[in-house]
Write a structure and sequence with these properties.
nine-stranded mixed β-sheet, six-stranded parallel β-sheet, 23% strand, globular
């Protein structure tokens, strides 16, 4: 295939695959707050009525299937919002069709799939990006600035906790959260691990323990109230993260916990402690406690995008393509997080450390 040169000063054109629940905020933001930076072209979904409704609401082109979207000359980037089990097939088809691709998290279900995707993209000279992009928001970027400027000294350790009792009591179709490629680690872990890598750099080795608290789950939300879900994945994972910088992290992700009083993320340094906001959001609050201070102090947000800014990652990738610079929510970062998640489960199964094979660069902070 002849490689397409990237025109200078061109706004990249985005086509969406998947018109499910998460697509709403992407559509809103790519047409709204990022509308002057990228062009939203079209959308497709296996449920054609969903794609048609979204296309009509946001004045974009409905496309009958993935093949039509990939073949469209007015699509530069395929935004892949399908369920995790479909991330690989959709993304691989896109890159083999000469398109850049940006996946929802996780990058793929398996490491083997992800490596094939990244290799194929390199061969086709196209880019791969991946959610989450919440680490680009005002809250975590403010924390990055504080750490980089030495407000807590040299980071020594970190903790991360994501614990609840699952999705079957509120989500209209929660079964996929308990299937391969999901569970608390693969569903929510990317937010926490990506934030930690952004703040502290890559993770060199991990150890962990994983268990399945319940073999089945009963849906209590509508419209599937009363149906049973067979659980395929661990639902409580506890891990230790050894960062390349020398810091040691602790992470717990769980769908087996009714209530807790633990923080989202905290970073502890030689000169103070930092409370990082919920990594599934873009805003604050950011709290710091330095030295012998007796109280936490709130730091005003020092960066842009405190609101729900999903779409920021693919927008940054679109601009990076034109500018010829690395994009921040990269495939390499997403693969590193994917390998760490699998490594935690491998460590649990083997009873040994898992040494991470593919480290990534720490993303550049937002300007």
């Amino acid at each position: 295939m002849e490689k397409r040169a990237e025109p200078d000063n061109e706004k990249k054109r985005i086509g969406i695959v998947g018109a499910g629940k998460i697509s709403g905020i992407y559509l809103k933001n790519l047409r709204g707050m990022f509308g002057k930076r990228v062009i939203l072209t079209g959308i497709t979904d296996l449920i054609t009525a969903q794609a048609a409704q979204a296309a009509e609401e946001y004045h974009i082109r409905p496309m009958k299937d993935l093949q039509e979207l990939i073949a469209c000359a007015e699509v530069d980037i395929v935004l892949n919002l399908t369920q995790p089990q479909n991330h690989y097939a959709v993304a691989l088809a896109a890159v083999r069709g000469g398109k850049h691709v940006y996946n929802e998290k996780p990058l793929c279900v398996s490491r083997e799939e992800a490596l094939t995707l990244l290799s194929s993209a390199q061969e086709q000279q196209v880019r791969v990006g991946c959610a989450p992009d919440t680490f680009l928001g005002a809250g975590i970027q403010t924390c990055r600035k504080l750490i980089d400027e030495g407000w807590i000294g040299r980071p020594l350790s970190a903790v991360a906790f994501m614990m609840n009792h699952g999705h079957e009591h509120w989500h209209p179709n929660p079964a996929f959260y308990y299937k391969t490629g999901a569970g608390p680690l693969f569903d929510m872990g990317p937010y926490y691990l990506t934030a930690l890598v952004n703040l502290l750099g890559p993770i060199a080795r991990v150890s962990g323990s994983a268990q399945q608290g319940f073999k089945t789950r009963t849906i209590t939300s509508e419209p599937l109230n009363g149906q049973l879900i067979t659980v395929e994945v661990p639902t409580h994972i506890a891990g230790v993260l050894d960062f390349a910088c020398g810091a040691v992290g602790t992470i717990i992700t769980s769908f087996d916990v009714y209530a807790h009083s633990l923080p989202y993320l905290e970073i502890y340094g030689t000169e103070g402690s930092l409370k990082v906001p919920d990594p599934n959001t873009f805003g604050g609050p950011v709290l710091i406690r330095r030295g012998s201070a007796e109280e936490w102090s709130e730091i005003p947000l020092l960066k842009d995008f405190p609101e729900n800014s999903r779409g920021l990652g693919v927008t940054d990738m679109a601009e990076a393509i034109v500018e010829g610079r690395p994009h921040r929510a990269s495939g390499e970062l997403a693969y590193h997080v994917l390998e760490v998640m699998h490594g935690l489960q491998d460590a649990s199964a083997s009873g040994t450390y898992y040494h991470v094979q593919r480290l990534c660069s720490q993303p550049e902070p937002m300007a």
